[in-house]
Specification:
This protein is α/β, with parallel strands linked by helices and 446 residues long. It is built from 20 helices and 10 strands. The longest helix has 19 residues.
Length: 446
Amino acid sequence: MYPLTESQCGEIIGLYKNKQSVPKISRMLKVHRTTVTHTIDKSQKILKTIVKDNNKKSAEEIKKIFVEKTNNELIFNKIKNYQQSNYQQSRTLPHHVIPVIIDTDGDNDDFFAILYALKSKNLDVRGVTYHGNGWSHAASVQNIVDIIDDIYSGKNIPVILGTDYSLYESDRNPNTLGTPGCTYQKSVPEGAAGGRRDSDLLYGLNRKLRLSKRIWYDAIKDFNITQDFADLIDSTIEATGKKPTIIAMGTATNIAMLLRAFPTYNTKIERIVWMAGALDVAGNVFTVPNNTRAEYNVYLDCVAAQELLDSDLKITLIPLDFTNKTPFNPAFFDKLSTLTSFYGKFAYQLLKMIRATWLGGELEFYNGYFLWDAKAVGFVKNIGVAKVVSNRTLAITCTEDKNYNGQFVASQVLTKADLEIATEPIVSDLVEDSPFFQDFIDVLEY
């Protein structure tokens, strides 16, 4: 590399970005016997090689290696500035396309939402973060990798593995080894009726997926959820020119851990859309009969949930109050049965297995299954939403009492978060023709 003064670097970048002629730039640089392409492009190639060979290192570590190789810190900063400007000019997503990061616990319901998001043209899925303290074990990440690598072929979308325990557990026992021994994880069934085993294997249907060449261990970036999550947010902003929306489909553990480690990253997130909570309807923690008001995603890590409310984030809750107003019905099931695409057929087969094993039988299935997480994706797409209200007067119960934990209650202290709640979906006279259901079918079929 040829070291350049700050003013020369500034002139080079300016001329290069303004598409001035190479001779004009070369004349300015004749003392150094170089050109803009030599200065910028060669430096970019060096930096690209360093990043490729050290993809698990932080930005500061990458910079240190670059400076050691080139003896030129100034050009590193200029390259970064140029790249950021270039991303803004030529790689910014169209206005209607929303970059999203999916945070999931791998429950079978999540896979409908993941498919819906991946196949929606106005969503750009930048990565998936996974945590094993919900309704599946870490190994089910392979199912997510297989689906992503098929739909987003060749893009190597990051899949980041988070913790196997809740903050409620780790704050009390830093040496915890995670599920299934954690206090609240005992409330998630391991066996039948949609428990972890069924989520891990998708009722055995994961054998029908188009398998990725990446095995799950190689597909994940690392086991450092906080740093990798932060890097994913940074790369999303750099590549799209937009802050990501995080669609949360499980506990808030990964997001809370990110904010503990990097509190300023609340400014780098557009908003959190979280399928969670029960406000004025009954909860769904059926394994704790005396807790009638909690919803699993809040209940399984009440510490993380409260920390989310205490953050400076824009948060939209998609509670059971919203999801349960558009019930799954036989007519919609019949519509699904007509789909001819690979993932349309897969979704139908998976729902058939869920219906066949549902506690209480088919009638209870139609009364109790609502495609919860997919409706959070629909909200981000602005499909089928009639009413959203602001409500910052909520808190979450989080004590030692499992019969009381994980409930939203009224609070006189306003949440720090800018909290809004989806309350009313658009429901057609025939429920199966409601905007959400129709869009879900259309997206899976294309």
